[in-house]
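QA checklist item 7 of 12: single-chain prediction sanity check.
[x] sequence parsed
[x] length recorded as 129
[x] structure emitted
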Amino acid sequence: QVQLVESGGGLVQAGGSLRLSCAASGRTFNNYAMGWFRQAPGKEREFVAAISKTGGRTSYADSVKGRFTVSRDNAKNTVYLQMNSLKPEDTAVYYCAADVVARGWTTYISSETAKYDYWGQGTQVTVSA
């Protein structure tokens, strides 16, 4: 089992930047593909970005492509989400999630919430107009 703890959320003006971090417990972090999701009030949780267990492949939702960057440091058991040019519509609780990946599946990533096995508690991001 892995525990995930997000940090870095906060209040920022439109056009600003934030960097979210997600620290994972355990010694098998490089066995997990990692994803970032978000959920705004009254809306379903939606995919934001994902990164393969080696970091060699990434994927983004169209709404954040070109503005957000996902990365990971397996030595630190941490995945990051750099968010630039933030918009009010980016306001949401942001969650990181871990997807157990079979040995050898180095490029596997998923945008489906149901594929992820472990979730953090979330961090609030609020973007003011």
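[x] summary fact logged: The chain has a mean pLDDT of 96.
[ ] second reviewer sign-off
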